From TrEMBL:
Pfam families from the UniProt entry: YbjQ_1
Protein name: UPF0145 protein GCM10009093_19900
PANTHER family reported in the protein's UniProt record: UPF0145 PROTEIN SCO3412, UPF0145 PROTEIN YBJQ
Native source species: Brevundimonas terrae
Cited InterPro entries: UPF0145_dom_sf, UPF0145_YbjQ-like
Length: 106
C-alpha cells in the first residue's frame, strides 16, 4: 500500500478514485500516565507517557485507514491527514483519513 500526504504519487498514475478511506480510534489516559504526566508538567520536559499514548493512537488509526482502503480495493491512499478531538476529559478520538485510489506505474 502506497501512502502519501500529497495529492499524487511521483511515477504513478491514478486510474481509479474509490472515495474516502478512514481509520478511527478512541484512546483514554490512565491513572499512571496522568500521575507521571502531572509530575513532568511541573518540572518541565518531554512527557513520555503522553507521547507513547499519542503515538499508539496515531498508529492504530493509520492501521485502520490501511484496512479500510484495502477493503475498498485500493493500492494507494493519497492526501492523508490526521485529526484528533477530545471527546471528554482524558478521552481522545484520533482520525486518519485520505483518498483511496488505484494507481499504476507510469
Amino acid at each position: 500500500m502506497l501512502v502519501a500526504t500529497t495529492n499524487d504519487l511521483a511515477g504513478y498514475r491514478i486510474v481509479k478514485h474509490l472515495g474516502m478511506a478512514r481509520g478511527v480510534t478512541v484512546r483514554s489516559r490512565n491513572a499512571v500516565s496522568d500521575f507521571v504526566g502531572g509530575i513532568h508538567a511541573m518540572i518541565g520536559g518531554r512527557i513520555t507517557a503522553y507521547v507513547k499514548l499519542a503515538e499508539m493512537g496515531r498508529a492504530e488509526a493509520y492501521s485502520e485507514l490501511i484496512n479500510h482502503a484495502q477493503s475498498l480495493g485500493a493500492n494507494a491512499v493519497i492526501a492523508v491527514r490526521y485529526d484528533a478531538t477530545e471527546i471528554m476529559p482524558g478521552t481522545t478520538e484520533v482520525l486518519c483519513y485520505g483518498t483511496a485510489v488505484v494507481v499504476e506505474p507510469v
